[in-house]
Design a protein that fits this description.
alpha/beta, 8-stranded parallel β-sheet, 15 strands
Length: 294
Amino acid sequence: RSPARRCRPTSTHRPPDRLVVIDDNVSRPATDVLSERSSRVVSYAKLHRSSVRRAEGRFLVEGANSVTAALDSGRAAVVLVRAADADRHHDVVAAAVERGVDVLWLSERAVAKLSEATTPPGVFAVCDLLDAELAEVLAAEPRLLAVAVEAREPGNAGTIIRCADAMGADAVVLLGDSVDPHNGKCVRSSAGSIFHLPIVRERSITEGLNRIRTAGLTALATAADGELSLDDAADVLARPTAWLLGNEAHGLADEVLAAADHRVSIPIRGHAESLNIAAAAAICLYESARIQAR
Protein backbone atom coordinates (compact mmCIF):
# COMPACT_ATOMS: atom_id res chain seq x y z
CA ARG A 1 0.00 0.00 0.00
CA SER A 2 1.10 3.53 -0.69
CA PRO A 3 2.34 5.45 2.37
CA ALA A 4 0.18 8.35 1.24
CA ARG A 5 -3.08 6.38 1.41
CA ARG A 6 -6.06 8.08 3.07
CA CYS A 7 -7.15 6.88 6.49
CA ARG A 8 -10.21 4.71 6.85
CA PRO A 9 -12.81 5.37 9.59
CA THR A 10 -12.01 3.67 12.85
CA SER A 11 -13.28 0.15 13.43
CA THR A 12 -16.19 -0.80 15.67
CA HIS A 13 -13.65 -1.73 18.37
CA ARG A 14 -13.11 1.97 19.04
CA PRO A 15 -15.58 4.82 19.53
CA PRO A 16 -16.60 5.99 16.04
CA ASP A 17 -15.83 9.62 16.98
CA ARG A 18 -12.22 8.77 17.91
CA LEU A 19 -9.51 9.52 15.36
CA VAL A 20 -6.47 7.44 14.57
CA VAL A 21 -3.24 8.42 12.87
CA ILE A 22 -1.96 6.17 10.09
CA ASP A 23 1.21 7.09 8.23
CA ASP A 24 1.07 10.65 9.59
CA ASN A 25 -2.37 11.30 8.06
CA VAL A 26 -5.30 12.06 10.32
CA SER A 27 -8.65 10.60 9.36
CA ARG A 28 -11.34 13.03 8.28
CA PRO A 29 -14.80 13.08 9.84
CA ALA A 30 -17.26 10.74 8.20
CA THR A 31 -20.80 10.64 9.60
CA ASP A 32 -20.10 10.98 13.33
CA VAL A 33 -20.61 14.70 13.75
CA LEU A 34 -22.15 15.95 16.98
CA SER A 35 -25.09 18.32 16.63
CA GLU A 36 -26.10 21.11 19.00
CA ARG A 37 -28.64 18.70 20.53
CA SER A 38 -26.06 16.04 21.36
CA SER A 39 -25.96 15.23 25.07
CA ARG A 40 -22.21 15.83 25.08
CA VAL A 41 -22.49 19.25 23.47
CA VAL A 42 -25.29 20.24 25.85
CA SER A 43 -23.18 19.08 28.80
CA TYR A 44 -20.06 20.94 27.62
CA ALA A 45 -22.05 24.14 26.96
CA LYS A 46 -23.05 24.19 30.63
CA LEU A 47 -19.37 24.65 31.53
CA HIS A 48 -19.80 28.33 30.68
CA ARG A 49 -21.33 28.61 34.16
CA SER A 50 -18.93 28.92 37.10
CA SER A 51 -21.08 26.76 39.40
CA VAL A 52 -21.06 23.90 36.89
CA ARG A 53 -17.30 24.17 36.38
CA ARG A 54 -16.71 24.00 40.11
CA ALA A 55 -19.12 21.07 40.59
CA GLU A 56 -17.66 19.04 37.73
CA GLY A 57 -14.00 20.01 38.17
CA ARG A 58 -13.54 20.87 34.50
CA PHE A 59 -13.80 23.81 32.12
CA LEU A 60 -13.99 24.57 28.40
CA VAL A 61 -11.24 26.32 26.43
CA GLU A 62 -11.50 27.69 22.92
CA GLY A 63 -8.96 28.50 20.22
CA ALA A 64 -5.91 26.75 18.81
CA ASN A 65 -3.40 28.40 21.19
CA SER A 66 -5.36 27.47 24.30
CA VAL A 67 -6.13 23.95 23.11
CA THR A 68 -2.50 23.31 22.18
CA ALA A 69 -1.35 24.59 25.57
CA ALA A 70 -3.94 22.39 27.28
CA LEU A 71 -2.65 19.34 25.39
CA ASP A 72 0.99 20.17 26.14
CA SER A 73 0.21 20.53 29.86
CA GLY A 74 -1.73 17.26 30.00
CA ARG A 75 -4.93 19.03 31.08
CA ALA A 76 -7.05 18.28 28.01
CA ALA A 77 -9.49 15.40 28.43
CA VAL A 78 -11.38 15.83 25.14
CA VAL A 79 -10.75 17.92 22.03
CA LEU A 80 -13.63 19.11 19.85
CA VAL A 81 -13.21 20.34 16.27
CA ARG A 82 -15.62 21.77 13.70
CA ALA A 83 -15.94 19.06 11.05
CA ALA A 84 -15.43 21.56 8.23
CA ASP A 85 -12.10 22.61 9.76
CA ALA A 86 -10.37 19.22 9.82
CA ASP A 87 -7.52 20.45 7.62
CA ARG A 88 -7.19 23.82 9.33
CA HIS A 89 -6.72 22.22 12.75
CA HIS A 90 -4.76 19.19 11.53
CA ASP A 91 -1.82 19.84 13.88
CA VAL A 92 -4.05 20.16 16.94
CA VAL A 93 -5.91 16.97 16.06
CA ALA A 94 -2.67 15.07 15.43
CA ALA A 95 -1.28 16.24 18.79
CA ALA A 96 -4.44 15.08 20.55
CA VAL A 97 -4.36 11.68 18.92
CA GLU A 98 -0.67 11.26 19.72
CA ARG A 99 -1.47 11.90 23.39
CA GLY A 100 -4.41 9.51 23.41
CA VAL A 101 -7.00 12.28 23.81
CA ASP A 102 -10.39 11.72 22.21
CA VAL A 103 -11.29 14.04 19.31
CA LEU A 104 -14.95 14.75 18.58
CA TRP A 105 -16.29 16.40 15.44
CA LEU A 106 -18.84 19.22 15.69
CA SER A 107 -21.50 20.61 13.39
CA GLU A 108 -21.62 24.35 12.69
CA ARG A 109 -24.53 24.78 15.10
CA ALA A 110 -22.74 22.79 17.80
CA VAL A 111 -19.77 25.14 17.47
CA ALA A 112 -22.09 28.14 17.83
CA LYS A 113 -23.57 26.62 20.98
CA LEU A 114 -20.15 26.10 22.58
CA SER A 115 -18.41 29.27 21.43
CA GLU A 116 -18.31 32.60 23.25
CA ALA A 117 -16.17 34.25 20.58
CA THR A 118 -17.50 36.69 17.96
CA THR A 119 -15.85 34.60 15.24
CA PRO A 120 -15.67 31.01 16.55
CA PRO A 121 -12.29 29.42 15.76
CA GLY A 122 -13.94 25.99 15.74
CA VAL A 123 -11.63 24.13 18.13
CA PHE A 124 -12.20 23.45 21.85
CA ALA A 125 -10.91 21.31 24.70
CA VAL A 126 -12.51 20.15 27.91
CA CYS A 127 -9.90 20.39 30.67
CA ASP A 128 -9.36 19.73 34.36
CA LEU A 129 -9.47 22.82 36.60
CA LEU A 130 -6.17 24.60 37.18
CA ASP A 131 -6.31 25.75 40.80
CA ALA A 132 -2.91 25.69 42.53
CA GLU A 133 -2.27 25.98 46.27
CA LEU A 134 -0.59 29.10 47.63
CA ALA A 135 1.41 26.98 50.09
CA GLU A 136 2.97 24.99 47.23
CA VAL A 137 3.80 28.13 45.26
CA LEU A 138 5.47 29.78 48.26
CA ALA A 139 7.33 26.60 49.20
CA ALA A 140 9.10 26.80 45.82
CA GLU A 141 10.67 30.14 46.88
CA PRO A 142 9.31 32.28 44.04
CA ARG A 143 11.12 35.45 42.99
CA LEU A 144 8.27 37.14 41.16
CA LEU A 145 4.51 36.95 41.71
CA ALA A 146 1.66 38.84 40.10
CA VAL A 147 -1.05 39.32 42.73
CA ALA A 148 -4.36 40.63 41.40
CA VAL A 149 -6.56 41.88 44.25
CA GLU A 150 -10.29 41.61 43.55
CA ALA A 151 -9.80 41.62 39.78
CA ARG A 152 -13.31 41.48 38.30
CA GLU A 153 -12.78 41.97 34.55
CA PRO A 154 -11.93 38.61 32.93
CA GLY A 155 -10.14 40.16 29.95
CA ASN A 156 -7.79 42.06 32.24
CA ALA A 157 -7.20 38.99 34.43
CA GLY A 158 -6.31 36.93 31.37
CA THR A 159 -3.96 39.63 30.12
CA ILE A 160 -2.23 39.79 33.51
CA ILE A 161 -1.73 36.02 33.37
CA ARG A 162 -0.30 36.34 29.86
CA CYS A 163 2.06 39.16 30.92
CA ALA A 164 3.17 37.22 34.00
CA ASP A 165 3.94 34.21 31.82
CA ALA A 166 5.86 36.32 29.29
CA MET A 167 7.96 37.98 32.01
CA GLY A 168 8.83 34.69 33.69
CA ALA A 169 6.77 35.18 36.85
CA ASP A 170 6.51 32.13 39.07
CA ALA A 171 2.74 32.31 39.58
CA VAL A 172 -0.36 34.50 39.47
CA VAL A 173 -2.37 34.89 42.67
CA LEU A 174 -6.00 36.08 42.57
CA LEU A 175 -6.95 37.47 45.97
CA GLY A 176 -10.40 38.18 47.37
CA ASP A 177 -13.53 38.30 45.24
CA SER A 178 -11.74 37.93 41.92
CA VAL A 179 -12.96 36.59 38.60
CA ASP A 180 -12.86 32.84 38.01
CA PRO A 181 -9.71 32.28 35.91
CA HIS A 182 -11.57 29.50 34.07
CA ASN A 183 -13.99 32.07 32.67
CA GLY A 184 -14.00 31.80 28.87
CA LYS A 185 -12.94 35.41 28.23
CA CYS A 186 -10.15 35.12 30.80
CA VAL A 187 -8.85 31.93 29.18
CA ARG A 188 -8.94 33.43 25.69
CA SER A 189 -7.21 36.63 26.85
CA SER A 190 -4.41 34.55 28.36
CA ALA A 191 -3.73 33.03 24.90
CA GLY A 192 -2.75 29.69 26.44
CA SER A 193 -0.63 31.18 29.25
CA ILE A 194 -3.13 30.01 31.85
CA PHE A 195 -1.65 26.52 31.35
CA HIS A 196 1.98 27.65 31.68
CA LEU A 197 2.22 28.81 35.29
CA PRO A 198 0.39 28.16 38.57
CA ILE A 199 -2.84 30.09 39.13
CA VAL A 200 -3.82 30.49 42.79
CA ARG A 201 -7.17 31.65 44.16
CA GLU A 202 -7.21 32.84 47.77
CA ARG A 203 -10.46 34.24 49.14
CA SER A 204 -8.95 35.98 52.16
CA ILE A 205 -6.97 39.05 51.16
CA THR A 206 -5.50 39.49 54.62
CA GLU A 207 -4.40 35.87 54.97
CA GLY A 208 -3.01 35.77 51.45
CA LEU A 209 -0.93 38.91 51.92
CA ASN A 210 0.34 37.73 55.31
CA ARG A 211 1.47 34.41 53.88
CA ILE A 212 3.17 36.07 50.90
CA ARG A 213 5.11 38.50 53.11
CA THR A 214 5.95 35.80 55.67
CA ALA A 215 7.51 33.81 52.81
CA GLY A 216 10.01 36.62 52.35
CA LEU A 217 8.59 38.42 49.33
CA THR A 218 8.53 42.21 49.22
CA ALA A 219 4.96 43.37 48.59
CA LEU A 220 4.77 46.27 46.13
CA ALA A 221 1.47 48.07 45.63
CA THR A 222 0.82 49.96 42.43
CA ALA A 223 -0.38 53.46 43.34
CA ALA A 224 -0.56 56.77 41.48
CA ASP A 225 0.73 58.59 44.56
CA GLY A 226 3.37 56.03 45.53
CA GLU A 227 6.32 57.18 47.59
CA LEU A 228 8.66 55.19 45.33
CA SER A 229 8.91 55.78 41.58
CA LEU A 230 9.38 52.73 39.38
CA ASP A 231 12.36 54.55 37.85
CA ASP A 232 14.12 54.48 41.24
CA ALA A 233 13.08 51.02 42.41
CA ALA A 234 15.94 48.87 41.12
CA ASP A 235 17.26 47.91 44.55
CA VAL A 236 13.79 46.86 45.70
CA LEU A 237 12.98 45.01 42.49
CA ALA A 238 16.13 42.91 42.79
CA ARG A 239 14.57 41.14 45.78
CA PRO A 240 11.87 38.45 45.58
CA THR A 241 8.81 40.52 44.79
CA ALA A 242 5.02 40.29 44.77
CA TRP A 243 3.27 42.99 42.73
CA LEU A 244 -0.15 43.91 44.18
CA LEU A 245 -2.46 44.98 41.35
CA GLY A 246 -5.73 46.67 42.21
CA ASN A 247 -9.33 46.37 41.14
CA GLU A 248 -10.07 47.98 37.75
CA ALA A 249 -12.60 50.44 39.11
CA HIS A 250 -11.35 51.25 42.62
CA GLY A 251 -7.67 50.33 42.74
CA LEU A 252 -6.26 48.87 45.95
CA ALA A 253 -8.11 49.30 49.22
CA ASP A 254 -6.48 51.39 51.96
CA GLU A 255 -5.79 48.33 54.10
CA VAL A 256 -3.99 46.62 51.21
CA LEU A 257 -1.90 49.72 50.54
CA ALA A 258 -1.05 49.85 54.24
CA ALA A 259 0.03 46.20 54.22
CA ALA A 260 2.45 46.70 51.31
CA ASP A 261 6.15 47.27 51.90
CA HIS A 262 6.20 50.04 49.28
CA ARG A 263 3.71 51.96 47.19
CA VAL A 264 5.17 52.28 43.68
CA SER A 265 4.09 54.79 41.05
CA ILE A 266 4.63 54.43 37.31
CA PRO A 267 5.88 57.72 35.82
CA ILE A 268 3.43 59.02 33.20
CA ARG A 269 5.19 61.37 30.83
CA GLY A 270 2.32 62.02 28.45
CA HIS A 271 -1.16 63.39 29.01
CA ALA A 272 -2.98 60.18 29.98
CA GLU A 273 -4.50 60.42 33.43
CA SER A 274 -3.77 56.80 34.33
CA LEU A 275 -3.12 53.28 33.06
CA ASN A 276 -5.51 50.36 33.22
CA ILE A 277 -4.54 47.45 35.43
CA ALA A 278 -3.35 45.17 32.61
CA ALA A 279 -1.04 47.87 31.20
CA ALA A 280 0.32 48.66 34.67
CA ALA A 281 0.94 44.96 35.29
CA ALA A 282 2.87 44.62 32.02
CA ILE A 283 5.14 47.57 32.85
CA CYS A 284 5.81 46.54 36.45
CA LEU A 285 6.43 42.87 35.66
CA TYR A 286 8.74 43.79 32.78
CA GLU A 287 10.80 46.05 35.01
CA SER A 288 11.06 43.38 37.70
CA ALA A 289 12.09 40.75 35.17
CA ARG A 290 14.69 43.10 33.67
CA ILE A 291 16.25 43.90 37.04
CA GLN A 292 16.21 40.30 38.27
CA ALA A 293 17.87 39.09 35.05
CA ARG A 294 20.99 41.20 35.67
